[in-house]
Amino acid sequence: MKIEIVTPDTTIFEGEITLAQLPGLDGSFEIMNNHAPLISVLKKGRIKLIDKQQLAQYFDVNGGVVEVLENKILVLAE
Predict the structure, then answer these.
(1) 59: part of which helix (H) or strand (E)?
(2) pLDDT one-digit tens code per residue, 29-72
(3) In CATH, what number is assigned to the domain containing residue 56?
(4) What's the domain count of the chain?
């Protein structure tokens, strides 16, 4: 699935992943391939991404919003 993490200034990451772990207001949650459509608010924390080679990448955010639709994740981060 595709993910794009953007801030008001720049695109932090764009690419193909197999799993995303995000810091939701009520706790962290994971998104995998074919996830149901979702819109959620994010709190300050760390986004964890796992790519197709099973390598992890981490991105710190101060909050934001995530939208999941048709195997595409869009994170609008602060």
Answers:
(1) strand 56-69
(2) 999 999 999 999 999 999 999 999 999 999 999 999 999 999 99
(3) 2.60.15.10
(4) 1
